[in-house]
Each structure stands twice: as C-alpha cells, then as structure tokens.
Amino acid sequence: MTTATPEKSEAVSSDHTPITVTLKILRFNPEVDTEPHWESYDVPAQRTDRLLNLLFYVKDYIDGTFSFRRSCAHGVCGSDAMQINGINRLACKVLMKDLLETGGKKTVITIAPIKGLTTLKDLYVDMDPFFEAYRAVKPYLIAYGNEPTRERIQSQADRDRFDDTTKCILCACCTSSCPVYWNDGSYFGPAAIVNAHRFIFDSRDEGAEERLDILNDSEGVWRCRTTFNCTDACPRGIQVTKAIQEVKRALLFKRV
C-alpha cells in the first residue's frame, strides 16, 4: 500500500486552505452616482477558485446591487470580460492561485469594466457599438448563383488558412484593449476585423471583395497601429495582429 509523499500532502492542503483576498472594484450606479468610485470587499477564497466565484460571493453575500455579466462560466460565451489588475481577461478563466501575493503579503485584486465602451452599471458595459461593427463586416458566408446540390467541399489546407480566426467568442477583450478604439469608438476594432478575416480567407466564400471594401474605409484596418495589445488580451490565443496584417496585405495586393 502506497502513501502520499509529504510534498504532495502539503500541496493538497495548501490548495484548500481558506484565504482572504480584497477585491477592489470600480463601482458605478447611474441612479445614484455621478462618477465611478472604488469600493473594496474582503472575500474568502481558495487557491483553486476562479475569480468569477469571488464576484458571485460579493453579489450573493455582501451587496446584491453589484452588477456584472456572466453566462457559461467556462470561457466560451465571453460574457465576463473585464479589466483584472489592469489587463483584459475573462473572470471565469482566471485562477486565484495565479493572482495571490507571496511572502504573506495581502492580495488586492483591482477589477474594472473594459475600456472604450460606455459603462451602464458597475462592470456592465454597452456592447451595442461593438456588435454594430461586427455586423457591419458581414460575418457570414456569402455565395452567389444557384444553391449547390452537394456539400461545399474544402481541403484541409484551405480550412487551415482561417482556422485561427474561427476561435473568436466576441468577448471584446481585444477591441477594448486597443488604444485607437479608446480614443475613437468609430474604429471597427480588432474583433470585427478578425471575424471578417474568418470569411475573407474561406475558399467557399464569394464576399471577400465586399468585406475588403468595407475594411478599406477610414475607420477600417488602416487605423491599426500594431501595438499587439489585442493579441495579448485574447483569451483564446488568437493571433489578432497577424490577422489584421493579413487583411491589410490582401487589400494592398488584391489577393486573398
């Protein structure tokens, strides 16, 4: 009969040892506040908790007026995008063990709404401008002529050409991390361009020219300053900046 080594036993116990962390949240209620303000909450947690669990604790046990978006809690819906310690991330994908201070220092986590979109309440922002830009690039398959009598066949190489940009979950982490978008919300933004890329380079699609014309606008791809903020912020690991550059190249050389 084998027994756990002391090292493993200590690791297991430390993962389940309750700790207290402070959430410093930027709060805003348009019914009572004229400006956003910071409020702090001491919350019990475990190393294995996700930050989303702690936000639920604040809402369920401390302040029921606290507002934030959430849905699947598995990093697929993209609803709970927010600034966590100044970085755009999904609260459901952030583990407490990655945020805890070492050396017995108290852990303080700052949480604020994503930038560039109007805050409606607390961490809840107006996503309408974001989705308007998304819809404007025609993010769907366009095909002309008669409907095919069989499946539209595509080679693996053709599928691989746009595989990366199929992963977008429309969380707005990339768009709201873009300095150009902060300063001028009329810019299409990285997420819209990523979703245009997904169809521009799809061999079955016939609407590439239409989308390229849309993105050749003054608010399109040429506004990108290649800061790589968008790539760094993407919770799905999409090479956003690379996709934008490929769309620019397609416009320059008129070749997809």
UniProtKB/TrEMBL annotation:
<keyword id="KW-0001">2Fe-2S</keyword>
<dbReference type="InterPro" id="IPR025192">
    <property type="entry name" value="Succ_DH/fum_Rdtase_N"/>
</dbReference>
<comment type="similarity">
    <text>Belongs to the succinate dehydrogenase/fumarate reductase iron-sulfur protein family.</text>
</comment>
<dbReference type="GO" id="GO:0046872">
    <property type="term" value="F:metal ion binding"/>
</dbReference>
<keyword id="KW-0560">Oxidoreductase</keyword>
<keyword id="KW-0003">3Fe-4S</keyword>
<dbReference type="GO" id="GO:0008177">
    <property type="term" value="F:succinate dehydrogenase (quinone) activity"/>
</dbReference>
<dbReference type="GO" id="GO:0006099">
    <property type="term" value="P:tricarboxylic acid cycle"/>
</dbReference>
<feature type="domain" description="4Fe-4S ferredoxin-type">
    <location>
        <begin position="158"/>
        <end position="180"/>
    </location>
</feature>
<dbReference type="InterPro" id="IPR050573">
    <property type="entry name" value="SDH/FRD_Iron-Sulfur"/>
</dbReference>
<dbReference type="InterPro" id="IPR017900">
    <property type="entry name" value="4Fe4S_Fe_S_CS"/>
</dbReference>
<protein>
    <recommendedName>
        <fullName>succinate dehydrogenase</fullName>
        <ecNumber>1.3.5.1</ecNumber>
    </recommendedName>
</protein>
<dbReference type="InterPro" id="IPR004489">
    <property type="entry name" value="Succ_DH/fum_Rdtase_Fe-S"/>
</dbReference>
<keyword id="KW-0816">Tricarboxylic acid cycle</keyword>
<dbReference type="InterPro" id="IPR017896">
    <property type="entry name" value="4Fe4S_Fe-S-bd"/>
</dbReference>
<dbReference type="InterPro" id="IPR036010">
    <property type="entry name" value="2Fe-2S_ferredoxin-like_sf"/>
</dbReference>
<dbReference type="GO" id="GO:0022904">
    <property type="term" value="P:respiratory electron transport chain"/>
</dbReference>
<dbReference type="GO" id="GO:0009055">
    <property type="term" value="F:electron transfer activity"/>
</dbReference>
<dbReference type="GO" id="GO:0051539">
    <property type="term" value="F:4 iron, 4 sulfur cluster binding"/>
</dbReference>
<dbReference type="GO" id="GO:0005886">
    <property type="term" value="C:plasma membrane"/>
</dbReference>
<keyword id="KW-0479">Metal-binding</keyword>
<dbReference type="InterPro" id="IPR012675">
    <property type="entry name" value="Beta-grasp_dom_sf"/>
</dbReference>
<dbReference type="GO" id="GO:0051538">
    <property type="term" value="F:3 iron, 4 sulfur cluster binding"/>
</dbReference>
<dbReference type="Pfam" id="PF13085">
    <property type="entry name" value="Fer2_3"/>
</dbReference>
<keyword id="KW-0411">Iron-sulfur</keyword>
<dbReference type="InterPro" id="IPR009051">
    <property type="entry name" value="Helical_ferredxn"/>
</dbReference>
<dbReference type="Pfam" id="PF13183">
    <property type="entry name" value="Fer4_8"/>
</dbReference>
<keyword id="KW-0408">Iron</keyword>
<dbReference type="GO" id="GO:0051537">
    <property type="term" value="F:2 iron, 2 sulfur cluster binding"/>
</dbReference>
<keyword id="KW-0004">4Fe-4S</keyword>
